[in-house]
Amino acid sequence: MGFAKIARRTFLIGAAAIAGGVAVGYYYVNKPYANPLEDDLADGESTFNPYIKISEDNTVTIITPRAEMGQGVHTSLAALVAEELDLTLDDIVAEHGMSDWAYYNGGMMEDGVPFAAFNESFMAEAARVAMPAVGKLLGLQATGGSSSIKDGFDKMRQAGCATRYMLLEAAAKEFGVSKDSLKLEGKTVVDPASGNSKTFGELASAAAALGAPSELVLREEKDWKLLGKPQPRVDIPAKVTGQPIFGIDVDLPDMTYGTVKMSPRFWAKAKSYDDTAALAVPGVQKVVPLETQTGNGFGIIADNTWAAFKGAEALEVEWEEASYPKTSEAMMEVIAAALDTEADQSLRDDGSVVTAFADAPQEELIEAEYSVPWLAHACMEPMNATAQWKDGVLDVWAPTQAPTIIQMICSDLVGVESDAVRVHTTNLGGGFGRRGEVDFPIYAVELAKHTEGRPVKVTWSREEDQRHDTYRPAAMGRMKARVKKGELPTAFDMHISSPSIMKSLLDRTFPGQAAAGPDNTISHGAFDQPYTIPNYRVQSSKADLPVPIGFWRSVGNSYNGWFHEGFMDEIAEKAGMDPLAMRLELMKDYPEAISVLNKVAEMSGWGREMPEGSGLGLAHVISFGTWVAMVVEVSDNDGDISIDNVWAACEFGTVIDPSIVKAQIMSGIVFGLSSAIGQEITFEDGEVVEGNFDEFDSMRMNQCPKIHVELLETYHKIGGAGEPGTPPSIPALANAIYAATGQRMRTMPFSNDVSFVS
Amino acid sequence: MKLNINSKLVEVGDDPEMPLLWALRDVAGMKGTKFGCGIAACGACTVHVDGEPVRSCQLMVGDVDGPITTIEGIGDADNLHAVQQAWIEEQVPQCGYCQSGQIMAAVALLRDTPEPTDEDIDDAMTNLCRCGTYPRIRSAIKRASETIKQEA
Which of B12, B39, B73 is the last residue of a domain? Predict the structure, then answer.
C-alpha cells in the first residue's frame, strides 16, 4: 500500500467527505487487514489475530494498540481480551506492538461527526456508522478523542473470544471429545471427564491453524469477572521502580545523541548562522541545518544530551522576521475581528434568535464576551524520538499517539516504501494531544541521515518543547440571551471565533492537502449541549493565524465548556433563578443530564449556607459521549482563593475499570483547573515568551482540591474518560468564584483578575 | 570520575560541569531519574545526596559531596520500599514520568516526618505532576506512613 495514496485519503477527514469516502473505499472497508504479527513471530509463537499471540512456553501476549500515556489503556484493553479467555491480568503480557494499519481507530472518528452525542436522528446515526469506515480506510492507528474503549470494546472482546473458540476446538480434536465438555483453568484447557489437559502454549500452533470461527457469542455482562471491576494496572510496577520505559529512555548499541534548535518564529528560516562556538563545545559532533514541513532550524548531534544542549545554546543564528501579527494582543485582535464577520458555520440554529431579539426590551437582554489564551500541553516528558537509518531500513522509536502517520511521513523523508519503516511505540510521559504530532520524529529521522547508520536519540530541552508546541488556540465567545426575571431564557445566541485546528494540523502534517471548509472543533462543547431553548443558535468563525495549534485535552470543549456554562450562570443570575434549578428545567428532556445534576447536588450539598468568602459553582458539559456535572467549592484564604473541593457525577454508560476511569476524571479536572488558575502562552516579536515551568506552571499538591467522583452507568452508549473531566472544571470554578466574591470571570487565566493560593 | 551511587562506585565521565542528571542518564545508563525542565522547577530529577532530596538537573557532578541514592536504589520489583508498595496499592501513577521524583521526595519526607500532616505533605511534595495524581499521592504517603509505623 503506497503512502501517497494514504495521504490523499487523509484529506477526507478534513473535508468530511464521508459518503464519497465510503463509496470509493468500499473494497478496503470490507476487506480485513492482514495480521501484522504474522511477519514477526518468534520460534514457537502462534498468532490468532492482530491482538493475540501465544508461545509454546505458554506466554500469552496481548497487543494493546493504543498508546499508554497514563490513561491505563494497556490494562483496560488487555482486560477486554483476558475476560473472554477466562484469564486474569497476571496471566498475560500487554504490549504496544508495531505500527500497522490493522490497528486503525474507528471509534475516534465517531466524534468527528457534526452532531451532538445524544443526537440519534437518522442523519447523525448514519454519519456515525460511516465514520469508523473512514478510520479503517485511513489505517489511522491513533490514540485520542477519549476513544480507546469505544473503539476496542467489541474488537478486543471478539479477538479474545475467537481465540478461546480456537483453543477449545484444538483441544477437543486432541482429546477426541466435544468442545462443549471442556473447561478453561488459567492458561490450560481441561477435559473434566478424562482429566486430560493441555496448556494454551501446547495447543497454540494447532489452534491458530484452524482459522477464525464465523460466529462468536461474547461473555454476557452478568458473567464478567474482570470488566467493571478495578484491576491493578499492568504498567504500574515498572513506573514505581524507575524502569526505562519511556521514549527518552531508549538506549541502543552505538547510539549517539542530539537536540534541535528550531526557529522561535513559526515558519521563519535562518537568515544566517555561525556554528563555530557550537562545534567547539566538547562532545558536539555536527550541526545540521533543518528545513522541514513542521519547522526550520538546526539539529545538533553530540556524544550526550547535555553536550547537545550546550551546543544548541552556543549556536548563533539570525532568524527571519515573523510573517504574522507579532504580539498576543495583535493576535487577539484578529480573533476578535472574526466575530464581526459573518459566521462560517452554524451547527445549531433552533427557532430564530434574530426574531427573538428584535422585539426584546433592553432590560431583558444580557450580553458578554469571554476569551481564552493560547496554552501549551506541557507533557512531563519533553518531546523526543530516536531514529536509525541503516541498510535501507528506517527504525523510529517514539512516544507517539499516531504511529502509522509517522510511518507514512517518515518513509517519504528517506524515500522508501512503508514496509521499510518500523515505528516502535514506547510509553508516553504525558500526551494530552501533543504526541499525535509528527515534528519530533521528523527531526530525529532528519538527524539519523547524518549519523552513518548509528541510532540517534533526539531530546528537546523544555524551552524548545514549550516554545514549539502545537498550542491550544486562543479563542473568543460572544454571547447574548433574552431572559425575563423569574423565567427561563427564551433566546441564546453564541458566536465563537478561533483559528482552525484542522487547518493547522493538515497544513503541517500533509502539506498541500489542506482541507477547506468549516471546522467542527471550534463549536464543540457549545452546539452539542443538552439544553432546550426555543431560540438557540451557535455559530463559529475561523480566524486566520498561522501559529501551530493542535488537539489539547478536550479540544474545543476546553474553552466552549466555560463560555457556554459561564454565561448560563450569568443568565440564571439575571433570571433570579438557582443555577441548578434553571439547568434542571432547561435539560429536562435529557434524563442522563438530570441524573448527574441531581447526583452532584446531593454529593456537594448544593444549596447549603456558605460562609463569607466561600462559594459553590456548578457546571454541566457533555463531551466525548460522557455526561459530567461538577461542583467546585472555593474559600477565602487570607485574601487568596483556595479551591477546596470538587464533586463530579459522570454518566459513562459502561465502565470497564472504575479505578482507572475515576483517575482519568480527576486528572482531567486538575488539567482544567491548572489552566484556569494561571496558564497562558503569550507572544512578543512573534516568539513565545514562556519558556519553562517557572513561567507556565500547573497546579501543585498544595493547590489541589479534594476530588470526589461518582460514576453512573445507565446510558446505552459507552462514553470516553480521558477528556470529559476537563471542560466542566473551568466554568464550575468560575461560577464558584462568582458565588464567593461577586467577581465574574470572563478572561482566562482567572489569575489575571483574582489571586489564588500559590 | 567515579561517584558513590546506590552504594556502588559508578563511572560518571570526566566533565565536572555536567549536571548529575545527565551523568546518571547518559553516562551511567541509569534512566530512572527523569529530565523534566532543567531548572529545578518540576522535581522529576529528584535524587538523594547524603539522604537529602536534591534536584539533580541543577547539581554539577563536580559538586556532589555525598553518597547518592536514585530510584533504582530505593527498591526493586522483588524488594519494594514501603513507599513504592503504597504507590502500587493506591494505584498512583498515570503516565508515570514524574513518579520517580515523587517517590524520592516522599521517601525523604517520611524519614524526617514519619506521620506527616496534610500541611507537611503540601510543604514537602512540591514536584509537578501533569496527570494530576496528587490526591492519590497524598493517600499513598499516608498509607506508607502506616506501614512504616507497623513495621517499626
Answer: B73
Give the HSE-up count for residue A496: Cα atoms under 13 Å, Cβ half-sphere: 34
Based on the fold, state whether residues A230 and A368 are members of the same structural domain: no
Cβ distance A467 to A374 under 8 Å? no
* Number of domains comprising chain B: 2
Shared domain for A146 and A284, answered yes or no, is no
Same domain, A251 and A235: no
Chain center to CA of A282: 40
Taking contacts as CB-CB distances below 8 angstroms, the residues of chain A near B38 are 309, 461-462, 692
Cβ–Cβ gap B132/A669 under 8 Å: yes
Are B69 and B86 contained in the same domain?
no
- Whether A364 and A502 share a structural domain: yes
Asked whether the beta carbons of residue B91 and residue A230 sit closer than 8 angstroms, the reply is: yes
Query: Is the CB of B22 less than 8 angstroms away from the CB of A306?
Result: yes
Residues B59 and B36 both lie in one domain? yes
Interface of B with A in 119-148 (CB under 8 A): 121-123, 125-138
In this structure, how many other beta carbons lie within 10 angstroms of the beta carbon of residue A607? 11
Question: A525 in helix, strand or coil?
Answer: coil
Residues A337 and A301 in one domain: no
Residue A757 touches chain B, beta carbons under 8 Å:
no
Name the nearest CA neighbour of A339 among A375, A374, A370: A370
How large is the average pLDDT for residues B39-59? 98
Query: Can you tell me which residue has the cell 433574552?
Result: A482
C-beta atoms of B77 and A237 within 8 A? yes
**A710 in the same domain as A629:** yes
Within 8 A of B88 by CB-CB distance, chain A residues are 232, 236-237, 240
- The reported pLDDT for the residue numbered A22 is 28
Cβ contacts of B109 within 8 Å, gap of 6 or more: B116, B120, B121, B124, B125, B141
Which domain does B125 fall in, by range?
82-151
For residues A591 and A647, membership in a common domain is answered with yes
Is the Cβ of B82 closer than 8 Å to some Cβ of chain A? no
CATH number at residue A77: 3.30.365.10
Nearest CA in chain B to A238: B77
- Rounded CA-CA distance A646/A665 in Å is 11
Q: What is the pLDDT of residue A693?
A: 98
A residues 453..492 contacting B (CB < 8 A) = 459, 461-462
Residue A137's pLDDT is: 55
Residues B102 and B57 in one domain: no
Identify the domain boundary among B73, B90, B105. B73
Provide the CATH number for the domain around residue B124.
Answer: 1.10.150.120
Q: Cis peptide before A705, with omega less than 30 degrees from 0? A: no
Rounded percentage of chain A residues whose pLDDT exceeds 90: 84
A236 and A252 fall within a common domain: no
List the Cα angle A604/A607/A612 in 5-degree steps: 95
Mean pLDDT of chain A: 92
- Report the percentage of chain B scoring pLDDT > 70: 100
We report the CATH number of the domain holding residue B36 as 3.10.20.30
CA A339 vs. chain centroid, Å, equals 28
CA distance A284 to chain B (A): 14
Q: What tens digit of pLDDT does each residue of A391-429 get?
A: 999 999 999 999 999 999 999 999 999 889 999 999 999
Number of domains present in the structure of chain A: 3
Residue B69 shares a structural domain with residue B88:
no
pLDDT tens digits for range A204-252: 999 999 988 888 999 999 999 999 999 999 999 999 999 999 999 999 9
Rounded Cα distance, A445 and A23, in Å: 36
Cell digits for A351?
427557532
Q: Looking at the complex, report in whole angstroms how far the Cα of residue A25 sits from the nearest Cα belonging to chain B.
A: 37
Q: pLDDT at position A24, please? A: 30
Per the structure, the complete domain to which residue A304 belongs is given by: 247-322+383-459
**Stated pTM of the model:** 0.95
Going by their DSSP bridges, the two strands A456-459 and A256-262 should be labelled as parallel
State whether B96 and A461 contact (CB < 8 Å). no
